[in-house]
Amino acid sequence: MPGHLETLLAFDRQYQRDQQQSPAFLHRRDRRYALDRDEGHTPDIHHWLTQLQALNDTTASSYPPELRSWQRFAGAFISLGALLGIVTMSGLLFYDGGQQINITVILGVILLQLVLALFTAIQGLAGWQPWAPLMHSLQHRLEKRQPSSALLPLFSPMMARTAQAAGLAFGVAGLMTLLTSVVLQDLAFGWSTTLETSAEGWHRIVSWVAAPWSAWLPVATPSLELVADTRFFRLENASAGTDSARWGAWWPFVAMAWLTWTVAPRLLLLILATVDLRRKSRRALHHHPGYTALLWRMETPAVETGSDTPDSGQLPADTAADTVPVPHTPLVVCWAGASPESALPTPGSVPVHAGGSQSLQADRNALEALAGRREPRDRELLVLTRAWEPPTAELEDFLEDAATQLPGITLTLLPLATAPAQRPSYLQLAQWLRFANRAGQGIRIAAKDHGEHNHDGH
Fold this sequence. Notes:
- By secondary structure, the chain is mainly alpha-helical.
- It has two domains: 65-286, no CATH class; 319-453.
- The chain is 54% helix and 6% strand.
- The chain is built from 16 helices and seven strands.
- A five-stranded parallel β-sheet has the order 4-3-5-6-7, with helices on one face. Strands 1-2 form a two-stranded parallel ribbon.
- Helix 5 packs parallel to helix 10 (251-286) and helix 7 packs antiparallel against helix 10 (251-286).
- The chain is rod-shaped and about 115 Å long.
- The two termini are 64 Å apart.
- Mean pLDDT is 79; it is low at 307-320 and 451-458.
């Protein structure tokens, strides 16, 4: 089955599982995935699903049960089409020695197959679902569950694709039966009709049928003489006055007519049905209720406001008492565009930049640069932030990575006000203190004028 169907069903299953998670968890998870991707790459749903399956320790190659049941049905339908092709062609080529094989009947069957192929293609493109109730009932009885809601809009193109594949199997099996009969039997073809049809009129009909190959395969194009010689009537001895070899000269025409007007249209329409199914399954994925929400979570920064914490309605009693002095350290990070002007505690220290529009790999490179320049006496990492911007989940992830790559380091955040000499407001410091309390890792919040309020330190 097309990969888009598997992706659609896997996404729908993940969407159903995500309904049990909190929006904050989903936002943080999907935003981190988006930052982990290289810049300029659009979200890849298949890669996103693979990453989640790897994190959940599940098998990425598990085939959806809905498609497995449909695959069994399609295989049975295609096998039935092949069997019907063998039986049909064997019936058309039946010859008891007293009456020729009628070309008229064979052309009638070819025309019927062409009409059925076109009707199936129109039904699939238009979205008609005449067999939907029967298929849903059959699947419910066999699988003991209702079909997936994600597949309901795609039932029509899926059925059209299966029907075209069964028609192609019918045509190929019929052609192989014809060629086998030509080798193993002495077939005698002719044409007969109750209507008053002249040899010239019938020759024009077969010439129209043979038009696609008449220019490069003249042996498969019946001549007027062959048409005139091989007409027979039911109650007459058709062999009288006609060379016996003439009755078998029709087989190249029959083979090419079957190949051109039965097998080739089915093959082309099968390709069209496959492309249409992929297009509609891709559109169904983009219109899935969870797809837009996923893109929003990937594109929107996750902001920690503290509104879902037990102390969200409370502020620390004394922010000055909970802050610490700005540590003197050469290890400084400017987070999300924070300006280091007049904020560097150690003259000559060169800060690194992280967060904001930078990729996750760039943040990792910044930490590697700090680890490379770290001296044994350096025990503090100072992270400059913008006080007026709420702390984000990306910052918490960065601090976790910093604690891992710089073992034994003390993490200190310094929220900066809009003006270099200005102290952040009481509410701004409060949100950063709540963030440090929730994040753990021994994170401290520093204030530039801490000494004016609390000379005892932390």
